[in-house]
Amino acid sequence: MNTNNKETSRPSPRPGFVLDVDRNTPPIVFHHGENFRLEKLPTGRSRIVYPSEPLAGIPDPEGAIKDALLNPLGDSDPLPSLLKPGMKLTIAFDDISLPLPPMRKPDIRQRIIEAVLDMAAEAGVDDVHLIAALALHRRMTEDELRHAVGDRVYDSFAPKGLLYNLDAEDPEGMVVLGETPHGEEVHFCRRAAESDLLIYVNINLVSMDGGHKSTATGLAGYTGLRHHHNVHTLRNSKSIMDKENSALHASNWRMGDVIKDAGVKIFQIETTVNNNTFGREGPLALLQKREWEWSARDRAQFIAMQRGLDLMPVKAKRRIFGSWQSPYEMTSVQAGEVEAVHQKTIENVYAQQLVTVEGQTDILTMGLPYICPYNVNSIMNPILVMCLGLGYFFNLYKGKPLVREGGVLIMSHPTPWEFHPVHHPSYIDFFEQVLTETTDPIEIEKRYEKQFAEDEWYIHLYRNSYAYHGVHPLYMWYWGSHAMQHLGRIIIVGGDQKAVHRLGFQSASTLQDALEIASDVVGPQPTITHLKNPPIVMADVI
Amino acid sequence: MKALRFKRNIPRYAAAKIAGNIMPGSGASFGPIDLIQEETSKAPGKDWVRVRPRLSGICGSDLATVDGKSARYFEPLVSFPFIPGHEVVGNLDDESRVVLEPVLSCSSRNISPTCTPCNEGRIGNCENVTLGEISSGIQTGSCHDTGGGWATEFYAHPSQLHSVPDEFSDEAAVMVEPTACGVHAALAAKLEDNGVVAILGSGTLGQVTISALRHLTNPRIIISTARYPEQRRLATELGADIVTNPDEIHRAVRRACGTKAIANVSEKSPEGRVDRLTGGADVVIDCVGSSKSISDALSITKPNGRIVLVGMPSIVELELTPLWHRELQLIGAYTYGTEKLTNGETVSTFDLAFELVKKAKLEKLVSASYSLNNYQEALKHAANAGVRGAFKIVFDLRDERERNIK
């Protein structure tokens, strides 16, 4: 990308909408891991929820950031007045899981952190730590940190040990700040807790992100996370993308109160990005176009791309897609008091992503792309496929799920029986041991959570290598637990059959086969809704 | 007499090897094994008695013979032609039922004084298997003079015979001999209380070993590998706490023992794989006997731990550095004899096996039976038992005309 927003957006980006499929509707592109499928949906009873076109980015991001820092929302003073010589300042920022795909340089975090550091330097603050708030995610590599914060910041802080990944298993580095009225322990990064000011730098890709969750989750470890990363909470979050109806967020908000009561002063900086995931120009631009608007050149390009990908070894495809960086543009930045900031952020996320949809459907279809929050520079293993489909895409709703209770979810993804051994060691064990015994989230939680959370080898790899924490695959499974409870059947099209069966789902080689299998559950002539995502679209189901 | 006879015939042996490599068990169609009709067999000595088999099992070592995969090690220890079959329940001439303990030790060879191992009850270690009144053969089923169980009759020395209690079905009785192998292996493991034991392989031998460990020892965790669903199900039923795919055994043992793991890291082999464990299981019992299974055992056994080789190996290729570096004990467990229990009591392995078969209802392992005429089918079934959801395949001789001629 263009760091200066050289790409031109439409003067009036078109909002997302629902297309009723008729005889003239062309085949629709389904994401399918590191490839795509063109699928024809049945006419007369199918509809497609299309995302909005990218909103215009802020033309002067640096100016907007500075303005947000100087004019905070809610009960907060402007940042410069919070910065004093001799103070202890901690800047925490979102980790590699945001945004998706990673954005082109300069990353929003870099822009914000540079602005904050300029102000801190001006105020004579010299005790500054920068922490990647990764909770139980894997540590970021040097390259990844450089990408997020920029070389200048990295070179100034990392060599002195002042820029680092959170280690939520360091007994000295973590502290319990107290308990919520619900008995939830608030586990927190000691450095952040003991700082005079904690500044949190966020990129809010979806409405689940941000708010008190940034700190109450991002700077916590297992002791705290277990109180909301559990089946009961996730099943009572309808959905996790809708804060007002999310038990996950309620718990984080309660924890936020405890953090505040413990005297931790937080200055929250949240940003939103537009839907320019694949670029308005370039090799993937047609993924942002509506199929009936494709030119002959687009069609030829798509066919060539698909055939090329068919022939390419998986590793090569992964390398190509993994190198894609989205030309996201920042659509808003707001700073100040956590809740006031987050309220504004959510409005801005919804402005880009929310599409009104009337009524539920019998069958929900979705094409799953090559990336999810936990496989950046990695492999999308079967558990992550489940989590992306059932945990994230299924939950992209407000009101009620897009698919009716007892309905069928059809996902398209190759679902390879493959794991990144460095990033996901406990996932391998989870897949090999746990899923052969049971796929019931409650049973898994009861029988295996403690074992996986306290396994010394996983803890060692989390702290010293680049592994997700031992308990993380269980959290992925919990993430899908609301969908699993809601759905009558889950089918994966074009997946590795053994892997799909291990997940407890059904496998189909084509969408037509999947629809036929689904008819056992929803009867003949079911209604079908396709969630065309990404770019991200969230359904407001009325 | 009707019997399956194995001859020394090098070209047909080679053909069996090729066929067996292509399709396990098909050595029977090309190899030097034939269905024969003979007048009657002859007792090899004055004490010997005629046994008319009712059921006669097919075991892994038999299949190796049929498919031309037996080690040449055995050549001087057998006498050709021979009639295979050593897992036998049969009738004596007075119609009483007996189970065969097939080892041909000093007693059955009329050798006196008996060798030290036989004196100590370790008849499987008999030093005289090529000597005495009868020709070479470590067991009935590999000795020309005695005949074997894959026939309507053969001869056994009284020291080889155990009476079958009335409550035992033929299926239960035919499981006594393989169960005795599992019992011997489980006790050879010398597993301390609350130890972790891993069993590689869950065919018949693996299953009876799991059962023996569960009933005769006091482990904290029994981990078993299983390739097929029915193996997985039965292993769990017989007492395995964790059942895993063979390729997943390293991680399963690591999880169970709470140990860490080591991988050979290179550009082609990324960090994070689990090649071997820092600690591991107290005991690993290998019921497969392949290069891979023994290598796996070496990489998942804790330092100073013990590996028991029960599955019959042939020529294997091994990296033995871990054996040296981790000071592992690699021991064999062949057949049976007498066992010393932890309370100091000495018991016959077969007596323990009879009890175990009864307690664990091991007759359930008998999955299918064939007549001698259908021996090619039977051997193919046995060689592919796992994939076909089966365990022990037996010849059913109860209705063979030749057997029932008075």
Describe the structure in your own words.
- The complex is a heterodimer of chains A (about 550) and B (about 400).
- Chain A folds into 2 domains: about 15-50 and about 360-540, 2-enoyl-CoA Hydratase, Chain A, domain 1 (Alpha-Beta Complex), CATH 3.90.226.30; about 60-275, 3-Layer(aba) Sandwich (Rossmann fold), CATH 3.40.50.11440.
- Helices cover about 35% and strands about 20% of the residues of chain A.
- Chain A has 21 helices and 20 strands.
- In chain A, β17, α20 and β18 (about 505-510) form a beta-alpha-beta unit.
- Chain A is globular, with a radius of gyration of 22 Å.
- Chain A starts with 16 loop residues before the first strand and ends with a strand.
- The model of chain A is unreliable at about 1-5 (pLDDT under 50).
- Chain B has about 400 residues and is of the alpha/beta class.
- Chain B has 2 domains: about 1-165 and about 370-405, Medium-chain alcohol dehydrogenases, catalytic domain (Quinone Oxidoreductase, Chain A, domain 1); about 180-335, 3-Layer(aba) Sandwich (Rossmann fold).
- Helices cover about 30% and strands about 20% of the residues of chain B.
- Chain B has helices spanning about 10-20, 25-30, 60-65, 115-120, 170-175, 175-190, 205-215, 230-240, 250-255, 290-300, 320-325, 350-360, 375-385, 400-405; strands at about 1-5, 35, 50-55, 90, 95-100, 155, 160-165, 195-200, 220-225, 240-245, 260, 275, 280-285, 300-310, 330, 340, 345-350, 365-370, 390-395.
- In chain B, the strands form 5 sheets. In chain B, strands 3, 4, 5, 6, 7, 18 and 19 form a 7-stranded mixed sheet that branches. Chain B has a 6-stranded parallel sheet with strand order 10-9-8-13-14-15, sandwiched between helices. A two-stranded antiparallel sheet of chain B has the order 1-2.
- In chain B, α13 (about 375-385) links the parallel β18 and β19 (about 390-395).
- Chain B is globular.
- The termini of chain B are close together.
- The mean pLDDT of chain B is about 90.
- Chains A and B meet through α15 and α17 of A and β10 and α9 of B.
